[in-house]
Amino acid sequence: MPRRLLRDGLIVDDDWSYLAEAEGNPSAALILTLADWQTDREAWLARGGRLGVVLSPAHTVDLLAADLSRFALIAADFSGPSEGRGYSQARLLREQWKFGGELRAIGYVRRDQLFFMARCGFNSFELPDSDIEDAHTALRTFSRAYQPSNDLGLPLKLRRR
Description:
By secondary structure, the chain is an alpha/beta fold. Helix content is 29%, strand content 22%.
């Protein structure tokens, strides 16, 4: 059964595979760790197809600066309940580096965080399958916010800069 996730406010089947899941499928859209990407960058580029990469909390976004255009997806790993560096990574990717692809929150992602994650620029969320329906509802709980953000009008913001 394919993994389900929230993407752009909808529950969808994930069309991406992590490296361990893609064995035997050379055309799979592939999510790599940053170490895998850095170790064998040229081989991954020669493979073709869509590529994504996972940033751990300790990684800085500028490690990807030269290659951002090569990635259709960047995931930020939230390793635990008190880990918040992914929020900063998302804001930097959207605002400073103008990343317009899928920005995915993975790891310790819970329904009460989704609204704030979306405000930072995440448009995709991996959650436990048992939580996905409630998380989908939670994502639509708030209709207005007072602070500037990256959740509405992102394509317009990217075009203006």
